Amino acid sequence: MLFNSIEFLIFLPIIFLLYWNLSLNKSYQNLILLIGSYIFYSWWDIKFLALIIISTLVDFFIGKLIYNETNLNYRKFLLFLSIFVNLGILFFFKYYNFFIDSFNNSLQYIGVSISNNYSLKVILPVGISFYTFQTMSYTIDIYRKKITPTNDIILFSTFISFFPQLVAGPIEKAKNLIPQLEKVRNFKYEYGIEGIKLILWGLFQKIFIADNLAITVNDIFLNYERLNGGDLTLGIFYFSFQIYCDFAGYSNIAIGVAKLFGINLSINFNYPYFSKDLIEFWKRWHISLTSWFRDYLYYPLGGSRVKSYRLIINIIIIFLVSGIWHGANWTFIIWGLLHSIFYLTIRLFFENNKDQNFIFNFLKWSLSFFAIFVGWGIFRSETFEQSISIFQSIIYDFKLPTSRRFNLIYIMLLILLELRLYSRNNNTLSKLNFFNKPAINYIVYYLILSLILSTSNSEQDFIYFQF
Asked: Catalytic residue positions?
């Protein structure tokens, strides 16, 4: 079920009314959320609901076993079992064919051919990367003795499958979401208003900005072989805003919907394109995933408190794993490797330099922008060969773009609105007020709603559903 669909427009008020009118205590509230979440997810394919239930049951019982176990070796075994089951399911559905095909291509490259095709017709379950990381963090935190396991299976199931953030985040940690589910939620008018504003802003980002840009972006990348470098440059530029508005839009809708149920989710975007360099960009983009990799991979590898060569290896590992997480394609791996190189360049050669002036900072920003731009070109390409062809055209056949400049209006409108929010220190998007006077704000909201309703594009999936 898509946030931008008629089905969700019907589904949300029904769950909302049941939640606030039939919920006598937290158990009833969580049960209604759980049933609603399972319906929400089953709308795509009910068969994949079994995968969520398997991950839920595995980590619910293993978490309790880890907490009660005193033998360190057995605790490690239980943690390994949890990670093995979760990553095993993720690997099979998301990466099995990728590794089989890559292995076969490697053998063919050295002259060895395999007659049998071991590839399978595997459909990627929507949101599997998100809820897998969320449930893994639960058992890891119990193993580290940072949290205690819950004995309420309904509550834990709701934590794993909470429908606003189930399929594309934010990836919530147990210490943030479970305590909220352990208490009775009382309806707060201000939460409702804040939630509606965030939903409206997220729909604007998704429907009016991202979906309109998607028409041009898809056309450019589909016909890249017969377009000049100027059109291709514009296509990558448009995509950089399409993917931001598509993903940030989903996150804002998710946070807004959760507020309607009295629950606060983590902020996932903090105006990343206003960053001064690539390091700050990754602190502002997909914050929940970045913090997940920091806490559960980067720190265990030693973090920054290691020798220089080890720090370089750690950062490369983080970005490569991030690339692999995004999808089973070499373009994502190359994208991750590219960002690691530029990230290390800025961190090692710019951050430690005390003599920073305007030219120095401009050079650092330019290098960061270049990395982000090139990265999005690789990220959007179907194959790495396609990305090479696109950048060759940009370098050797650059001409002024043709008739696609009208799309700049969408980007200019977005930047003006976000600059207004950013200048008012609304970087947490908790209030989403553009002006001090409520009457002017409501005019802005009305205009945003009008632009959403004026968009005639059909329902389009969110980009991050494929990850």
From this structure: 326
